[in-house]
Amino acid sequence: MNSTPRGELVSRALTHSWRPQVPETSSLSPDELKAVTPLLYESGAAGLGWWRIRNTALRKTAEGELLHQAFRLLVLRAKAHETQIEKLFRLFREREVEALLVKGWAVARYYPEPALRPYGDIALLIHPSDFDRAARVLQSDEARDCQTDAHVWMFELADRPIEDVFARSRLVHCAGEQVRVLSDEDHFALLSIHLLKHAAWRPLWLCDIAMLLETMAEGFDWEICFGRDKRRLNWILAVVGLAQKLLGAEIPHAGIAELAKQPPDWLSTQVLRNREIPFAHLHAPLTHNAPIRSYLRRPRGLLKDLARRWPDPILATVTANGTFGKRPRIRYQFGNWVIRAARLAQTGGVG
Predict the structure, then answer these.
(1) Does residue 201 lie in a domain region?
(2) At what angle do helices 30-43 and 46-53 cross, to 10 degrees?
(3) Residue 137 belongs to some domain of the structure
């Protein structure tokens, strides 16, 4: 029986998986591939798992064929998504709506095959002055089949003026339509902070960072990427360090590599642990049994359920606006717990 932690197997399975050319050997044994395949499949990384082993002997195993079948399905879904994005931005252009495509296809287009980076909805950042018109487009019969997630503000970009974000954006082609996307610098910052905000449980997110690091344009402006908030600079460097440590990503800038080296051990350990549960709702603090209000009538089990609400240390660091260092996370976790308790008090203890 394989005794290697499954989170570590995920990292080994995905190391260098974003590269156009991958080695003809794998660091995984057939038994290890069998153990890790469900995690790759459930977390959306099956396509990358296949890409990594497609030139190795593991492709002939039952798990290899399962990953190959998943990749074929992802190819079809990627084409369908591109068609929807093309239509959506055509509708936006006809109605003079300024919208930015973020995450999803905007990062998938950098992979050797877009299908390697699956996504669900079409994430959009809408200029505040255009939101009403954008909403009418999204509610129209023509856009009914497009599953979207539209925002006028995003936590990940809260440190930079929206006008600057739009001014740095650029147009790229998706199928037959021009699509507006974030600048490489803003997008890298968004993806890094999004990963931490969601406790890094999905391995695809760190593969995005690793891939972007290795395909980064020579003129990439790290100063713009880091922004003016020193805490967020710390967050982005922590993610760069994770990509290097857990996935073997090569950092093109020697100075950045030096700043990002050796992320805190607790952070790497927690990321690997979170990968063993490929569903967001199964991670703390979302694992409680019942609403707090129910314990007012029947307090039995309250203490155990409070423990289940104790936040993940990565998530707590971000929500408490902390930094990723070597010190214990207890102060950030307690701060996160207090913030959530205050919100529950305001809503009458519904959560």
Answers:
(1) no
(2) 150
(3) yes
The answer to whether position 132 is within a domain reads yes
At residue 328 the predicted structure's pLDDT band, cuts being 50, 70 and 90, is confident
Question: Domains in the chain: how many in total?
Answer: 2
Give the largest Cα separation in the chain, rounded: 62
pTM for this model (two decimals): 0.91
By C-alpha distance, which of 52, 30, 121 is closest to 84?
A: 121
Query: Is the pLDDT at 294 greater than 60, yes or no?
Result: no
Residue 39, in any domain of the structure: no
Q: What is the pLDDT of residues 87-143, one digit of tens each?
A: 999 999 999 999 999 999 999 999 999 999 999 999 999 999 999 999 999 999 999
Burial 83-101 (b: 16+ CB within 10 A, else e): bbbbbbbbbbeeeebbbbb
Residue 110: which domain range? 82-185
From residue 331, alpha-carbon distances to 113, 280, 338, 339 in Å are 43, 23, 11, 12
Task: For residue 340, count other CB atoms closer than 10 A to its CB.
Answer: 16
